[in-house]
Amino acid sequence: MARKAKSAEPLVEPEVHVASFRQTRNNRRTEIIEDYVELVADLIADAGEARQIDIARRLGVAQPTVAKMLKRLAADGLIVQRPYRGIFLTEEGNALALRVRERHQVVESFLRALGIGEDIARIDAEGIEHHVSDETLSAFRKFVAARDQ
């Protein structure tokens, strides 16, 4: 008979579990949208334009996958596609890209302040930025600001 591992902490209430898993599932749904919008902003800032082929290359996905997501982003009012001219962010898309970029920078700065190497901090921040709450992000900001003083 297998032994049941003892948990260090008691199991949380079901409502707490539901809330945390609901938030995580919602964050996963928005994560891809945020990644695309952030990448479009980065490509425009770097090269003056964002093209479907560049997005596919940087995300490591096929162009049809990118085309499908771009249609969704356009339908959501985050981008505008112009034939032969590439992809452009709407005002709403640009605002989202700025929020995502700022979250990424805060998380990455926090990880660096903990002594995490630059490359690992950048990679880890890419995942964490989509799941961190406003409260936690605020604590990260305060920690980094206090450390920098």
From TrEMBL:
Its main location: cytoplasm. Residues 29-90 form the HTH dtxR-type domain. GO terms for cellular component: cytoplasm. SUPFAM superfamilies: Iron-dependent repressor protein, dimerization domain (SSF47979), Winged helix' DNA-binding domain (SSF46785). SMART domains: HTH_DTXR. The keyword DNA-binding applies. Pfam families: Fe_dep_repr_C, Fe_dep_repress. The keyword Signal does not apply. InterPro entries: DtxR_MntR_Metal-Reg, Fe_dep_repressor, Fe_dep_repressor_sf, HTH_DTXR, Iron_dep_repressor, WH-like_DNA-bd_sf, WH_DNA-bd_sf. One of its GO terms (molecular function) is protein dimerization activity. Keywords: Activator, Cytoplasm, DNA-binding, Manganese, Repressor, Transcription, Transcription regulation. It is found in: Cytoplasm. Homodimer. Belongs to the DtxR/MntR family. In the presence of manganese, represses expression of mntH and mntS. Up-regulates expression of mntP. This is Transcriptional regulator MntR. It comes from Georhizobium profundi. The lineage of its organism: Bacteria, Pseudomonadati, Pseudomonadota, Alphaproteobacteria, Hyphomicrobiales.
